[in-house]
Amino acid sequence: CDPAARRPAGATDVRPSRAAACCATAASLVREFFDQNPLSHLSVLAMRDGACARLSELSASAESHLAAIRAVEPPSGDASLQNALHAARTALGAVPTYGLREVLMLVSTLSSCDPGDVNKEISACARAKMRASVVSLSAEMYVCRTLADKTKGKCETALDAAHFRSLALGHAKPPAALRELAPASLIQMGFPKQAAAAMGGGEGEANAVNVCPRCRAHATDLPAICATCDLTLASSLMMARSYHHLFPLPRSELAPPEALLAAGGAGRAPCTGCGEAFDGARDEVVLRRPCCGVLLCVACDVYMQTLHNCVGCLSGDGAMDGGGADGIGNGQAATAMDVGA
């Protein structure tokens, strides 16, 4: 077997190298993951020399994960899919039953050098209710496809570095939770207040810490588990950002021709988002929000989906039931204020 084909992480067909492309994509994925999943935890592992090293512990600290990725050593030796899955299964063993156990593998190798039967490890991951996905910078491997199929994940192959990054960032958005994998459960959470605490030996040196509402212990980062009473600590901003994925906006629908007429029949109604009047030649598709009835052009509708808030409900211009200040817009307005804080 050609060693270059077995260990292609140092190959330079992707500039500057495949290993550098994987590290850069992993760093972007960490930032996007915590932006989309503020209450989730992450751990970074690396395959090298036939083993799997844990670069960072399972935590919600993006900075520690980014520092671990920046300090990763150059690639060497063979990759072992079996050891990587075993390390991931061990790291995710303490995840509560209501949480999803997901593994995303960014690979550039064309082989797996395993000490035992990798199929047994794949079956163990499936029994542990783990969902494993693979994004490959090389050709698709049969063992990766088998892993994705048995754990209900995805196996994707990139065409180039840009496509590789796009496929990886597509896994940042939380997937729909399957009832058999993550049953619903109520948990206790605390919302700590910030306070100044003296740190170090210098005079006047103080850092902001989060005070647990139950036992008054201090936590430096959020979200976190209180070291004294085991209470889950989070902020209202993180809850609001998680709310967007639990209750996504309804999709806009095509507006009927009669809805394009402005009040009183004087001209055509403008777009609620940008205020521009609809032009038949320019705006062939006009959309209407089902929750409030306002009209939007395609560009404003796409932008509104990225904000996770309905512009008609927020402005109170909705003409249908549920819109305005007393309807659905009231809750969405509060969410928007939290996100913008």
UniProtKB/TrEMBL annotation:
Pfam families noted in UniProt: Ssl1 (PF04056)
Stored SMART domains: C1_4
One Gene Ontology term, aspect cellular component: transcription factor TFIIH core complex
Superkingdom of this protein's organism: Eukaryota
Keyword Metal-binding applies: yes
A biological process term (GO) from this entry: DNA-templated transcription
MF term (GO), any: zinc ion binding
Residues making up the signal peptide according to the UniProt record: none
Limits of the TFIIH C1-like domain: 270-315
InterPro entries noted in UniProt: C1-like_sf, Ssl1-like, TFIIH_C1-like_dom, TFIIH_SSL1/p44, vWFA_dom_sf, Znf_RING/FYVE/PHD
Keywords in alphabetical order: Metal-binding, Zinc
Record PANTHER family: GENERAL TRANSCRIPTION FACTOR IIH SUBUNIT 2, GENERAL TRANSCRIPTION FACTOR IIH SUBUNIT 2-RELATED
Protein name as annotated: TFIIH C1-like domain-containing protein
Species for this entry: Prasinoderma singulare
